[in-house]
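A further point concerns the way the authors explain their paired sequence and structure data. The central task, working out the structure tokens from the amino acid sequence alone, is never made concrete. I therefore recommend that a typical entry be quoted early in the introduction. An entry of this sort, consisting of the sequence and the corresponding backbone structure tokens, reads as follows:
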Amino acid sequence: MSKLEKNWFQLTLRIQSSVIPAIMPRVILCTTLGIIISLLDHQNLPLPTEVFSYFIFPDLVLGLLLVFRTNTAYDRFWEGRKLWGTLVNTVRNFSRQIWLMVPEKEVNDTNNKIATLKLLVAFAVATKLHLRGEKVNQEIEALTSSEQYTKLQTMNHPPLEIAFWIGDYLQDKNKHHHLHIYQLTALYKLLDTMVDVLGGCERIAKTPLPLAYQIHLQQILLIYCLILPLKIVNNLGLFTGLIVAIMTFTLLGIEEIARQIENPFGYDENDLQLDAICQAMSKNIQDLTSLPPSVQTYEQEIKGELNDIAVAKEVRTPTDSET
């Protein structure tokens, strides 16, 4: 057996990260009911099976509702993943351009640049905590100064405050002529993109599927699973419980998957791995700051070239006796 086939069977038999623990109590309830009805039918006791034998219309309605529910939940999940992918790329571009563009003319310039790059990661971490409804914690404390961390603890919207600090740093560098206006504009566009990502994630987190729709779908699903044994017992007899178990496992599993992924920013196994994404961004910043800024080498090379040109001019300038 190939490695791929082993992985396939391992994944098929896996319980962790599946919806089995969540739906098993409901599946057992419906299966037990199916077994009881099949035993009653086997004893030739009168059951209202004819009433539900032609109960086809709810099947179609339930199928359409489940498809819509699943598609809507996955759209929200994928939209969240795209937004966080945009945030990762924006942070990478932002940090790279700050590290290369901003010159280091004073003693504290390097430390200020590194602190600003850490704020980019702090923005992502603060966004993660904000989407989960949590307050700032040690993750933020490790990426900010003590004054900034104290300030963030009092803020209602920490990501926006961090974005303000980043923008303030850019404005200060432009004021001291360390950034040209077109460089400032380009960097502000990246900052705007980060705030746009924050707004898109908030839209997903704060706009769940309408509660009335969720309630109605779950009510229909429960009613269907409870009357399913009466619908199929005439044809399946003692196998009713087994078939009910399979069908309820399928239907309840689909609904539970949609419920788990519709808000992709939590801690569920099937949610986005935001902790890992933030850690990856932090490692990217660490790798970047371990390299010398190209702006230093560039300025040194320019100064060297200017000195060479000045020396060459002095050598080539004719003297008064020659003229």
